Amino acid sequence: MDDQILIARALAGDSDAERALYDAHVDRIYRLAYRFAGSDDLARDFTQDTFIRAFARLREFRGESAFSTWLHQVGVSVMLNGMKKVKRLRNSEVALEHAATVGARHREAEPDLKRRLTEAIDALPDGYRMVFLMHDAEGYTHVEIAAALGIQPGTSKAQLSRAREKLRVALKDFAGDWA
Amino acid sequence: MNEREDFDAQWSARAGRHNPPPPAPRDEMWAAIKAARVAGPVQPEPKTPTSPLHAPRRVRPAVWWVTGIAAAAVLGAVLGRWTAPENGTGPLAARGPAEPGSTVVARADQLPPKELPDGVGTVPPATQPSPRPSPRVGAAAAAPATRDGDRGAPNRAYRVAAAQHLAMTEALLVTLRADLQAGRQDSTIAKWATGLLSTTRLMMDSPASQDPQLRRLLEDLELVLVQIARLQAATADTTELRIIDEAVRRRQVLTRLRAMAPGA
Fold first, then answer.
1. Is any Cβ of chain B less than 8 angstroms from the Cβ of A167?
2. Is the Cβ pair B16, A139 closer than 8 Å?
3. Mutate which of B5, B45, B245, B249 to test chain A, going by most A C-beta atoms within 10 A?
4. Could you tell me the domains of chain A?
């Protein structure tokens, strides 16, 4: 059923319509949250928060964009702010340069490309990481990413390029393993 | 194909396979969403996505500690002002509303000094007029303990303090979960929880707990914070953390915390 009809019914208090909206979009939001947060716990929290906030603000949705776009705006905001809290509290951000240095030092002892890849992605600044994961891991277009993040598509492309550049640097000692 | 294009091409193939998400636990999350929406309205989020390019400067963990202590102090002051008697002397006026016609409505200054508990302080003699007569005397004797005239001000102040407290508690629980995922246990988290536990109990003993939703949340928070406060020093054994996190998850404490608006 069309999102607009479901939204109208949800605004009228139809809980089945709310559930239908949820079912239609939850998988993409959860997948993105999981990619970004890296764990099921946080992904659940972010997904739940996204829908709680979206339903609470459903009247603000004017239909100027697709509901999915608006929902992603809410979701990306929840995820970025949520990760900021986690990182701020734990001071767990590792500078990418540091990660690269550490990786280079332990190249012999820790040849685990998968783990290094995870570390390198985690070390990206959140904005770059979000663009990178949305585009390269989840297949969003730059137009979709731009709409979700409130930036221009050109900015999305630039951020993706910078993210890849940082990964190239961080994983340069694995260059041969890519092939 | 140069190095850059090669990397991009290789990445595109690998990216989808890297850390693949499991199927979304739809029903579990829906149940949590419904529970949170029943619990209350959500805290407002900025309408536009927060651009990481314009993100505020990182706040050092020490600032969180200072903020927490300050929030506890503010909350204590607010609760103290709210529940304190007008004449600010003894505990009698703070014992809660008196029944109409009850004989317990006598002013503190009408009691002989020998009936006052030790350490209460100086009570003006009955023959001396009180500088600020209690509003609970005479016709106003049946009025509630809170001051009706300026009820709005302490309510607003309380809501601010409560919001700060809930935010700090959420921060603690998020930290706990992050610790668990990282397989470590921070030695300072128990101390942090102890401070928050005191504030939680202050709130539970205040008129704020008349709000049933907040009351239930505070009761659950108290249980969780007691467990965290009892954690031993830093250790690699995260069994206790896991048990606590399980309790947090079972009671949906984090979700309810986030759903509880500052003005709820």
1. yes
2. yes
3. B45
4. 1-92 (1.10.1740.10), 94-174 (1.10.10.10)
Residue B45 lies inside a defined structural domain of this protein? no
List pLDDT tens digits, range B38-69: 766 555 544 444 444 444 444 444 555 555 66
Residues of A in contact with B55 (CB under 8 A): 84, 126
Min CA distance, B203 vs chain A (Å)?
Answer: 24
Residue B72 lies in domain: 61-81+151-259
- Å between B16 CA and nearest CA of chain A: 5
Q: Does A44 touch chain B (CB under 8 A)?
A: yes
Residues 6 or more apart from B147 whose CB is under 8 A from it? Answer: B86, B135, B154
Window 83-102 of A, Cβ < 8 Å to B: 84-93
B-facing residues of A in 56-85 (CB < 8 A) are 56, 60, 73-74, 76-78, 80-81, 84-85
Q: For the segment B194-231, what is each residue's pLDDT rounded down to a tens digit? A: 888 888 888 887 777 777 888 888 888 888 888 888 77
Half-sphere exposure of A163 (CA within 13 A, CB side): 26
Complex prediction ipTM: 0.81
B47 belongs to a structural domain: no
Closest partner residue to A164 among B8, B49, B175, by Cβ? B8
Give the separation between CA B240 and CA A166, rounded to whole angstroms. 38
Looking at per-residue pLDDT, the higher value among B21 and B136 belongs to B21
Closest by alpha carbon to A140, among A84, A83, A66?
Answer: A66
Q: Does B171 contact A85 at a Cβ distance shorter than 8 Å?
A: yes
Task: Please give the Cα distance from A135 to A35 (Å, whole number).
Answer: 11
CA B10, CA A18: separation in Å to the nearest integer?
40
Q: Is residue B112 part of a domain?
A: no
Flag if A53 and B45 touch (Cβ within 8 Å): yes
Number of domains comprising chain B: 1
C-alpha span between B149 and B182 (Å, rounded): 52
Query: Residue B54: inside a domain, yes or no?
Result: no
Distant-in-sequence, close-in-space partners of B199: CB < 8 Å, separation ≥ 6: B71, B72, B75, B76, B165
